[in-house]
Amino acid sequence: MAEGIVLLTIFVLSAFTGYEVIAKVSTILHTPLMSGANAIHGVILVGAILVAGRADSAIELIVGLVAVFLATLNMVGGFVVTDRMLEMFKPRKQVERP
Amino acid sequence: MTESVWIDAGYLLAAVCFILALKALSSPRSARWGNAVGAVGAVLAVVLVFLAERPSNLVAILIAILLGGLVGAVAARRVAMTAMPQLVALFNGVGGGAAALVALLELGEVGGSAIIPLVATAFTVLIGAISFSGSAITFAKLQELMTSRPIVPPGAQWLFGGAIIAALALSVLVVTTGNTLIGVVLALVALGLGVLLVLPVGGADVPIVISLLNAFTGLSVAASGYLLGNTLLLVAGTLVGAAGALLTKLMAQAMGRSVANIMFGALRGGSTLG
């Protein structure tokens, strides 16, 4: 039970953090931010490695490896495509708001 | 013992990287830096899981990572600027799919144990699969593999309502029985639900749906973190879930619409400006 409450606490605090931290996003960055956040949830790769590493039958291993492949696709592709989007925002002095 | 403290401290560092990344991505001057910090956090997390877990099947896992990384990087490098939104949708969908598969595999482990991990499992499978198939439909719409007009199948409300009830009933069954086969059926129903959710959305509104599904995937990753007892997955998934939910609202506001209107406008018979 104690561990459950710790995890619940982490969940609630993270939810507020996620909300507050992007609250002032400028409109032109909506799409890159979405893409960057998308890359971040690619860390499901950590979970995929965990289950694939524990697999003890062939079918479990195959499903686990598919999860690893898909999660890596999400993570690597996500960061690379976000970087390409942001190339377009190179130092062109435009309306600067603090 | 001391080793696991170092690992947890490393996960904390990765979580901080993700928070900084989201913060930096909100401002034009720091956005590119923010993305790089996020990538550093992700690589750190993956290195740590190998150190902490020393997984068996190591070679096979490394090959799967190599293939996924290669395909992802090449696709992201080659894609035309105009086709980026649908690629993001695709990446988001496969992330949701990965989360659902992780939960299905873990169902065998948690089966018969405490109720909360089982709820987290059912939630991950349900939301992850919805995100997977929903993203596939948004991809097809933007890639013009299908019409980008809103599609409302006859009796859509009933179909949609029925699918939701079936999904909820199956979720309850998964929680009470912990049966993997029922989990697979739940995943299949959730795939159908994802399709039904996105079909009625018009082409111009699709980016907002991608953002919503992005938040969905975040939440399913968070639930899988709860399930695996991995705090980093919990934090990262929740961050993306919360940020994604707010971002969805902001994007809809920028278009002068409400999220509910975008998602369900066509179902109610209204126009969705497809």
Automatic annotation (TrEMBL), chain A:
Keywords attached to this Swiss-Prot or TrEMBL record, sorted alphabetically, are: Cell inner membrane, Cell membrane, Membrane, NAD, NADP, Translocase, Transmembrane, Transmembrane helix
Where does it live in the cell? Cell inner membrane
Q: Where are the transmembrane segments?
A: 33-52, 59-81
| EC code | 7.1.1.1
Which InterPro entries does UniProt cross-reference here?
NADP_transhyd_a_C
Where is it chiefly localized?
membrane
Task: State the protein's purpose.
Answer: The transhydrogenation between NADH and NADP is coupled to respiration and ATP hydrolysis and functions as a proton pump across the membrane.
Q: What is this protein called?
A: proton-translocating NAD(P)(+) transhydrogenase
